[in-house]
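## retry 2 of 3
previous attempt timed out at serialization; input unchanged, resubmitting
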Amino acid sequence: GGAALEVLEEAAKAAELPAVVRRLLMAAAAAATKYTKNYEKAGQIYAQLRKEGEEDVELDEATLDLLRAEGKFEQVIERLAAKAEGFESQAARMAVVQEIARTYNEDVKDFPKAFDYYAACLQATDDDREIVGILDKLAGRTERWADLATTLTTAADAAEAAGNVPLSVFFYQKIGLIYLERLDQTSYALTCFQKVLEHEPKNVVALGALADLYRGAQQWSELADVGTRLAEAEQVPAKARDRLAEAARIQYEKLSATKAARALLERVLAEDPAHDAAGALMMKILEDAKDWSKLAALTATRVDAMPAGPELVAARFKLGELCEVRL
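## retry succeeded, writing output
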């Protein structure tokens, strides 16, 4: 490291072209920063280069690397802030602000300030998704969930105004989860998830959250409806059948809507005659209705579909009893 530094400096002295001299000195200063940790020497080289020419991007970045290596993060932030003010482009300015946020977060460990700077970086573009992930972690460190909800609401409105519907849906889903899981403000959460479903009727996260809300509030009619919508949105057929069976149970037990429950159960059993929950509930409904012939037919279908085991034995016994006593 030290020998390489001396070689680079000697080569710079021998070089004639200014561009070559500069390149060699920049390499020498970088070696002093990274390898020999001779920060004073690196600073002297950069100071010499500034006297000989204008500050440029390369020299600015190298100086920032030196200041970071020295642990002078407040100076890093000051230089970055001045750099941001010099840009007319909003995108370029925000890129520097994000670098300030990263410095506060990763180097200074000042998480409240990091939160504020990252929040300022939200610009209603798809890059916001990554920033939201960082803000979520910072909110966890600082307990600033209410601030995060407010910040994301502003960002969601901006995304919607910009016509970026997928991004606004992403924001509202995140806000809804914050209100539901972190702030226990169910009415706000409900509003957010409903906005998500306006644009994405089969959004499983929003539907699942609504199901939890309606179950907690014992709003059985709404829960049954959402359960059916969840089944339709479910990509895995077995899970879809489970959700339909659960919706049928709510229709039957909570709403006394036997006809609606039977319609849902018939859909499940048409696909899976051996579905335990759907079969058991349908058998109860048919038994309560004293519809012995349909009960016997369902039991026979379930017997044919069941694997060997105690449940098959019980079903056969039930079928025999029905045929002997009820038919």
